[in-house]
Design brief:
This protein has 307 residues and is of the alpha+beta class. Helix content is 45%, strand content 13%. It folds into 2 domains: 168 residues, DD-peptidase/beta-lactamase superfamily (Beta-lactamase, 3-Layer(aba) Sandwich); 130 residues, Beta-lactamase (3-Layer(aba) Sandwich), CATH 3.40.710.10. Bound molecules: 6-diazenyl-5-OXO-L-norleucine (DON). 6-diazenyl-5-OXO-L-norleucine binds next to loops.
């Protein structure tokens, strides 16, 4: 579909939804996230031919939180290969993103890399491969998107470090099953930093183009992932990208995607585009209320889902 058509449909849905009552709540269990204005609403689509359209606050940077779990998974998969799946599974958890429950019966193997426990294990894998994990991961993101303005928010990382008691529990619990190899404090410090990465909708819709089209899968003449690995990450996004609401997102939207408690959502249409939405108020499952509503309308009106 031509960018002009997307532009028309996105503009229509944006004005329909902008003033709809938002039934969500801004996340404040990480205190710094509670300081964001709840009225922010932005959307950006980037097609694989690089044509782009944004509306609302599409250039405002926000905390991408769990969306960064796609990026840590990508780098860990590149470095570790198929061995990665001995440490983390690929099944939907059907549970909240910060749940400890299944780890006991699963002997410390997290259900998937997009819940907190899985992302913490992926961070541990990265620490085993990298000399300076925070710096090298940030460079990986910058090179992948050719965007050297990307950065962590030290304020958000510190805020989460001071209050992230469940993540501390998760990391220690997994270590008791020997599925964390490095120092717990080091793993958590890295995890809190990757969650604090900041991007705008425009930047998000650019960085994830490598999951939509082959030509974005190389940087520095190195392939980021093989075609088969990119397919697999899309598959995990479709089945696990929205925690215990992954079925609902596939049902209502029909695209591989990933949310974060900062209110961002990215969704991929393989061979077509990447789209990002930001609206900070979250529904009860931790996903952006208006973001879900927008994307549902978007795939309905464009008839552009993967199904
Ligand atoms: O670990 C946490 O709780 C946050 N840093 C990330 C959680 C998150 O984004 C889940 N998303 N919906």
């Amino acid at each position: 579909m031509q960018i002009k058509k997307y532009q028309k449909i996105i503009t229509e849905i944006y004005s329909d939804i902008k003033d709809v009552e938002d039934l969500g709540k801004v996340a404040n269990y990480i205190p710094e996230l509670g300081n964001v204005s709840a009225d922010n609403f932005g959307i950006n689509i980037t097609k694989i031919n690089n044509e782009s359209f944004g509306i609302g606050n599409f250039e405002g940077k926000f905390s991408i939180q769990s969306i960064s779990k796609i990026l840590t998974l990508t780098l860990a998969y590149k470095l570790e290969g198929e061995k990665l799946w001995q440490r983390v599974d690929v099944e939907p958890s059907g549970n909240p993103f910060n749940s400890l429950q299944q780890l006991e019966s699963d002997y410390g193997i997290p259900r998937n890399p997009f819940i907190n426990s899985g992302a913490i294990v992926v961070c541990d894998v990265l620490i085993s491969h990298l000399q300076n994990p925070k710096e090298e991961f940030l460079n990986f993101c910058r090179e992948l998107s050719n965007n050297f303005t990307l950065n962590y928010s030290e304020k958000v990382a510190t805020s989460e470090k001071n209050t992230g008691f469940r993540n501390v529990a998760l990391c220690n619990f997994i270590k008791s099953f020997k599925n964390i190899k490095n120092n717990v404090d080091e793993v958590l410090d890295f995890y809190f930093h990757i969650c604090s990465l900041e991007m705008s909708c425009k930047e998000l819709s650019e960085i994830f183009l490598y999951l939509a089209d082959d030509k974005f899968r190389t940087h520095k003449e190195n392939s980021v992932l093989t075609e088969s690995q990119a397919k697999r990450i899309n598959a995990i996004m479709l089945t696990c990208g929205f925690y215990d609401e992954s079925g609902e997102f596939a049902f209502r939207v029909g695209l591989p995607g990933k949310s974060g408690v900062g209110g961002g959502i990215v969704a991929i249409h393989p061979d077509e585009f990447c789209i990002a939405v930001w609206s900070p108020k979250l529904n009860k499952k931790g996903n952006s209320y208006k973001g879900m509503l927008f994307l549902e309308n978007f795939t309905t009106k464009t008839a552009c889902s993967i199904f």
